[in-house]
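Run log // design_07
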């Protein structure tokens, strides 16, 4: 995976910290909506400010969020430290808590991906045809080794990072989410 400043590879400690419903929602909210205070996040996520502050500090301990700007009394503004993260199973293999955290995060992200796709499909017809055509759901079947799949994933992430760096915005630009899922077609047919 990429080691660019916009991306971090999570270690087992960071995975264990992030594998919490409110913490994962806080990090997502900061990535999607930008910097915010604990009070703003608590209101947006329908929780209390004390719990929000506590969990933001936990995320900061592992470098996933950072304080920005000058604090105003007890009010601090937080932002996501990176735009993306990942981990390899090898990072947690043999650590039962790390494996449980990674399993929980994968299931959580799968649910979030499905929810996002459902929201898009519900709103898609209200968007211009050009956007409907550009926002694609697709699949491709390949026959590759694990090393080849790893190389393919790295190359696709490089393409995404290149587009992120050269994006210029403009009046017709909108934020998009790119999901990348690559997995065996027949998971029951293990090697």
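design_07 sequence
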């Amino acid at each position: 995976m990429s080691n660019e400043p916009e991306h971090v590879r999570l270690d087992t400690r960071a995975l264990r910290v992030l594998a919490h419903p409110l913490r994962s929602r806080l990090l997502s909210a900061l990535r999607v909506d930008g910097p915010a205070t604990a009070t703003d996040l608590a209101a947006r996520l329908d929780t209390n400010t004390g719990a929000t502050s506590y969990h933001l500090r936990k995320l900061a301990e592992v470098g996933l969020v950072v304080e920005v700007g000058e604090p105003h009394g007890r009010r601090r503004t937080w932002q996501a430290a990176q735009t993306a993260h990942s981990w390899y199973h090898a990072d947690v293999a043999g650590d039962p808590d790390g494996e449980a955290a990674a399993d929980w995060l994968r299931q959580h992200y799968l649910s979030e991906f499905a929810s996002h796709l459902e929201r898009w499909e519900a709103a898609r017809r209200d968007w211009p045809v050009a956007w409907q055509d550009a926002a694609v759901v697709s699949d491709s079947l390949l026959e590759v080794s694990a090393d080849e799949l790893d190389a393919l994933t790295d190359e696709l992430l490089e393409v995404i990072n290149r587009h992120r760096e050269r994006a210029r915005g403009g009046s017709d630009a909108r934020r998009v989410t790119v999901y990348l899922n690559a997995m065996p077609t027949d998971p029951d047919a293990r090697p």
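The chain has one domain: 1-135.
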